[in-house]
Amino acid sequence: MTTIFDGYKNLTDEQIIDQITILETINFTNSMRLYTNKVKESTVKVIKKIWNNIDKDTETEEIKTKEIYEILEENKQKLMELSRQELDIKLKLLLCDKVESDIELSEEEISLDIVNEAIKILNIGDYLTPARKIDEIFDIYNGKVKKYLQLKANEDSEDEEDKKIKLEEVHININFLMEVIIENIKSKDIIYGSKKIDREILSQSIWISALNYGKKFSPYIEELPSSSLSIVKDEMIKEDDQFFKLKSNYQKAINELDENEIRHMDLENELDEVKKSLENKKYARSETENTNKQLNKKIIDIESELLYIVNNLEVLEKEVGYLSDRIEIKDSKVLNRYNEMKKEFDFKKQEVRDIKNEIKEKEVKIINLTEGIKSDDKNINNITIKVEYLQEEIKRLKKVRRQAEKEYQEEKEVRYKKLKNLWSLYFKDIDIQPQFIKEVVEYRLNDRLKIERVIKELQEAKNPETVSRNFRKKEKKENFYIDIMLNEYKQVRLEYKIEEHNENKISLIRVYHGEKIYLD
Predict the structure, then answer these.
(1) Is the pTM of this model over 0.90?
(2) Domains and CATH numbers, the chain
(3) Which one of 112, 224, 348, 385 is most buried, by most CB atoms within 10 A?
């Protein structure tokens, strides 16, 4: 993996000395000295107040920018006699000190520590690979440099043509680098401490490394396998369109089949419910009809009893009339017998009326149940027709799905073989699992190129674990992974492992989205 140290190798001895001098000289105290010369008077008062609390031995009147440049020049002169090897070691030591990294670590790990510290003041995604982070830092800091150049040009000249300054025409020495750093230091950076100042210096150092490296740290599109195919980009886009059309047709066939199968299942359940309802109604009607038969029979029995009572009442009534003309019959047994039978007659009469009312109610119930049975019969017929239609439709959709799946899988297999053969030429040292390729062919060209860029970065890394997002925090059973932001902000995770038993060979396992992915 390319690191910022590869960029430093292209720096002249003087440029390396400039970097060492800045790293050695610019600390919290000296940043305050520099900053007070460029800010408004009200801010200077605040800075000086903080300064006096920190450095009691220095008078605030002595805070002059020129002193810092004198110190820079003195420190620079002390480094002139060192060899290039000594300068390189000193630079690495200073950088490690800034980020609290171990000098014994590999250059990839130290570079990663420096880059991760620098991006803390920049709007750069932590999920990016180390090389992409360096490129992003370069672009952002390059913007700061150009902004400063334009600001100086606007101050120095009124001629519009003279205001157009090109970066390659500028002599980038220590004074220029310091001016850019000063321009980008804010009052809050001084007030809140040295971390932001250190990160500003680290960003500048990464920028100078990338500027002299001469090209991007992450692979260029033209270097990637899918960009090297003989067919033109338009043809590849057409192939993608054709594949995704087949994929869409297959997914549409799956969805339609699923929808109809669910609808069929719902109708089958509904049919079962209506059939149960029909059976319940038929049973209830039969029971009600039987009850009415029994009630009618009971009425006949009661009416027979009433006829018997009426006959007896007539006889008793005559006896009561006969006796009442001759004796006092108030307490006679005949009258008592007559009254008891009269009560029984009235009771039976009321019982008949109640039973007849009950029979009428049940007849209404029978009518309603009969209507309900007719309605259920009609529903069963209608649902049965729908079920039979859906059964035929499902048969048809299964054929459509099989055909759509066949076309989709055939095209996917073509893409799989093509990509497998292509990658076997470009990524010979990497073990790429079939499942990994099967997942990658599901993406369009632009997204595949982003995945290939990460694979190439892994391939070029001396320590491929340093490219991973979970480097230094990987759990024992966990694989290494890299998060990749594709087009339309779709994030995927590339999962890989390093086979220690096989010369640290990289094995690409999966690339997936939507499961177990979290932006820390």
Answers:
(1) no
(2) 4-52+64-218 (no CATH), 233-417 (1.10.287.1490), 427-513 (3.30.2310.20)
(3) 112
